[in-house]
Each structure stands twice: as structure tokens, then as C-alpha cells.
Amino acid sequence: MKFLHHALAFVSGAVAVLGFSPLDFFPATLLALAILVHLWVRAPSPRAACLAGFLFGLGFFLAGVSWVFVSLNRFGAMPAPLAAVATLGFCAFLALFPATAGWAQARLRAPFAIPALWVLTEWLRGAILTGFPWLSVGYAAVDTPLAGFAPLGGVYLLSLATMAAAGLLWLIAVNRSRWPAAAGFAAIGIAGAVLQSVAWTAPSGGPVSVSLLQGNVPQGLKFDPARYERTLATYARLADESRARLIVLPETALPRFLDLADPAFVGQLKAIAVRNGGDLLLGVPTRTQPGVYRNSVISLGVSPAAAYHKSHLVPFGEFVPPGFGWILGVLQIPLSDFSRGGTAQQPMAVAGERVAVNICYEDAYGTEILRQLPAATLLVNVSNVAWFGDSLAPGQHLQIARLRALETGRMHLTATNTGITAAIAADGKVLKQLPQFAEGRLEIAAQGRHGATPYVAFADGPALALCLLLLFFFARRARSR
Fold this sequence. Notes:
Layout: H1 2-16, H2 26-41, H3 46-64, H4 67-75, H5 80-108, H6 114-125, H7 150-173, H8 178-195, E1 202-203, E2 208-214, H9 219-222, H10 228-240, E3 246-248, H11 263-275, E4 279-289, E5 292-301, E6 307-309, E7 348-350, E8 353-359, H12 366-369, E9 378-383, H13 393-408, E10 412-416, E11 422-424, E12 430-433, E13 440-446, E14 449-450, H14 454-458, H15 461-480
Parallel strand pairs: 2-3, 3-4, 8-9, 9-10
Antiparallel strand pairs: 1-14, 2-13, 4-5, 5-6, 7-8, 10-11, 11-12
Helix pairs in contact: 1-2, 1-3, 2-3, 2-7, 3-5, 4-5, 5-6, 6-7, 6-15, 7-8, 7-13, 7-15, 10-11
């Protein structure tokens, strides 16, 4: 019987991934979480609940972030056995967070505190050791009525609503307070649907024409000197074909330090932007002094020159934590020792808009996007998810970007090297997207917006405070009984 429970926990965790992009089957996530609630409530001891949470988390992350193996082995040149062990170890570490939530609810004898405990441990996962907030369960709800909660409290409020809905579904299934549970389940959905009708922000001026370029440069060739000239020619041609006022190139579209790039190429891009009466954003590594390298986006065109330097770097991919320098001898990742950009950078004033730029997985951190709001009128992400091949990662990243649009009430434009390049409306809907692994140019009329959602004003504070209050209330109530 124990084996069956352990297998059920592991399989349920893997099934929960079906609700995330590109699969987008939210009922599977809700059902898997309801099964986890059942296993936790029926666990005979805190230790058993902890193990159930760990096995659920292990299945969840092994299925959901298996693309870590792809980046380590295929593109980082780490031997397959070592990459497999590293991926398993990483997923096991992430599984400790749902394990902690399971142990805590059993230790406190407070099953009704499960949603709050889940969200608090999810938040910790996004903060500890630079954080990894990927696969917060709130993302799976982006196409459901629960998405209406995003402008109020961000992804963690969505996670709270999702876990509460899963708990109520379990109550309905076990015939325990069925009708009150059904009423609560319906109320959560109705409240979210009503909130979706609220316009938290308003248009700012008229739309601006935007062109998002996708060069489709294979990751294995991106930093190959023999491919360099062809890469430049591809982006120069795509840019020249556009008449948009704002042209956006992906992360490290220019795969060489800016000071080593051919000035004629940079001048050509600037001339194209000036011809269009606007500006061009170029992803390029920069260095201001020996030993100080940054992953940057610079502007070229009619507006005063501006730059954004990535501040939240990827461990081992963009910087090496102290004591782990030996890993550079195993991984073959170019440009893996960047310096952080500042945390007080302002939006770029380009093409008549104030653009909040973020690079790669920075948009997985909602509170970091808020640093440039409410001043910014548009969000722009430049990425190179070619590191993860044809895996779940690009679709998951697009889903994350959609939630950032919902939280901020801003249009979110994302330009990537191999896909998924997309334009996302302020309500989180994808307006246009390019197919993966294809060269292309996405043209869109982007509408800037002004104003502040409650999430822009208060960040994660209200959602976390609500979780703490619920935890205190239900834990105290359980102990008094």
C-alpha cells in the first residue's frame, strides 16, 4: 500500500505539468493537486506527508524542467551521465519545497492551511539561492477565470486560488461538506471572472508599429566565428525589410562584444532605425572595463542612446557562484562570467514609448519587472531559449510572459532567437507569434498603457500577507480543537 501511495504521489506530480504550456490542460493540474491534498490529509504522520510532498515535487519537476538536461548535455557539452545526475539533483532540491509544505501541514494538524503553506514555500523557492520560480502553479491558470486575480496579487495569488480550488475539489470528491465546498469552488471562479472585466490601466497615446526579429541561429553555431558574418547579414536583412518605428532583436543577436563588433554593421542598424523615424533595440554583450562583462540591450536610432544591463543572472550559465569555478572546466558555455547590472535602471525612452526591457528569464521574477513600473508603457523581453532545444521551456517561458502582462496591465513583446517570438496583449492573450525554429519578422501595432494595477503598487506583499494570516488562523483553529 505504501508503494502505491508513493507511486501515486510521483505520477500525480508529473501529471500536474500538463496544465502548463505548451500543453495547457489546466484540469489535469487541478486534479493532480487535489490528489496531493488527499495524500497529505490522509498521511499517518508528518514524515509520511513530507515524503508524499517530495515524491510529488520530484515527479513535477522531473517532468516540467527536464530541459535542464538538454542545456547541460547538448549545448553545455556535459557528459550525459553527469548531466542526468545534475538534473536529478536539481529536481530533488526543488522537491524539498512541496515536501516542506506537506510536513508543516501535518505537523500543525491544519489541512485547511495547505494552500497558504504551498504558496509560502513556492515563494521561498523563488527567492533562495537567487531563486527558481519556474512552474509556480498559478501560471497554469492563465487561461482560466482565475487569471482575474493576477492584477491584484500576481502569480502567488493565482497559486493560492488554484490550491484552494484543488482543496475544495477534494472536499467535493470525498463527500465532506460537499455543498459548501461546491459553493466555494464556484465563488472562486466567479470572482476571478468578474475581476477580468476590470480595466486596471488605460491606453497611453496611439499605437506604435513594432517589428520583432527572429534570426533562428542554431545554438551550436551561435558563437561559431565561421557563422558570424551570416548571422549579421540575417539580422541586417530582416531589419531592413521592416518599416516599423521600433525594431527589436533578440538576446545576444550580435554574438560578440560590442567594442569588437564591426562599426559598419552597428551603423547600418542605426541608419535603418533613423530611416524609419524610430529606434532599434539590439541584444549584445558589452564591457566597460577589463573583467566587467554584461548581458545588455542597447538602443540605436533617433532617440538618445540608452542601454539596459541584465541584473538577474543565471547561475552557472551567466555567472559562477563562489567555490564552483571548477564547473567551467566541465561546461562549455561561452560568456558565462557576466557582471550584474544595476537594480535601479529606468525604462528606455524609444519610439515615443517608455520601454521596460528585461532579458531571458528575468521576466520569471514578477517583482523585478516592477522596478521600471508604473513609468514604463511597454514591456519587452529579449531571449535566447535555443539553449533548451525543442523542449517544454519555450512554451513555459511564453506562459510566464503572459502572466507578466496580466499582472502589470501592459503589452508584453518578446523577441527570441529561435522562438517563441510573440506579442502579448495587456489581458495576457497572445495576439501574434512566430513558429519555432524558423526565421521571421513579427509585425504588430503595439499599444502603450499607463496606470498601475494593485500588483504594480503592492507587489507580492498582499498575497504573502494573506497566506500568513490564513496559516495563523487555521493552525490556531486546528490546535484549539
